[in-house]
Amino acid sequence: MGQTATSLARTATKPVSWLLGRSGSENEVNSRCGGLVPYGGTLFVHRRRGSMFFDEDGDLAHEFYKQVTKGNRVTMERCVDNLKPQGEVDLPIPRLHGDLPVFIYEVPSTVLTAKASR
């Protein structure tokens, strides 16, 4: 129950908190962009949380399995112990922030050429 209440509170307060912005240079960026910059202070995301894990041998993968023998039957069992998260990963190309409330669409080139010919 506590987790549900917390997630509902975050959902309700998130739009209010990032519209208010923060102090310093982040407010300058926010004012240039019409108040639409999320609380991170930039339109772009340069790092993300990694989705893979390191095992005790130092191997990196999304999932790890071990071979288990039960009687005459051999099966694969998923390992969930002794795994460390990958951590932050640099993005090769910066992405737009997910909380940016702006619609981005591509104008077809036929519309642009029609306007240019007028």
Keywords:
elongated, FUS1, 118 residues, 3-stranded antiparallel beta sheet, two-stranded antiparallel ribbon, 7 strands, alpha+beta, 3 helices, 2 domains
In words, what does this structure look like?
The chain is of the alpha+beta class. The chain has 2 domains: 1-45 and 92-118, no CATH class; 51-86, no CATH class. Helix content is 31%, strand content 30%. It has 3 helices and 7 strands, in the order H-H-E-E-E-E-E-E-E-H. The strands form 3 sheets. It has a 3-stranded antiparallel sheet with strand order 3-2-6, with no helix packed on it. Strand 2 (53-54) and strand 3 (60-61) form a beta hairpin. It is elongated and about 80 Å long. The N and C termini lie far apart (62 Å). 3% of the residues are buried. The model is unreliable at 16-26 (pLDDT under 50). InterPro entries: FUS1. Pfam families: TUSC2 (PF15000).
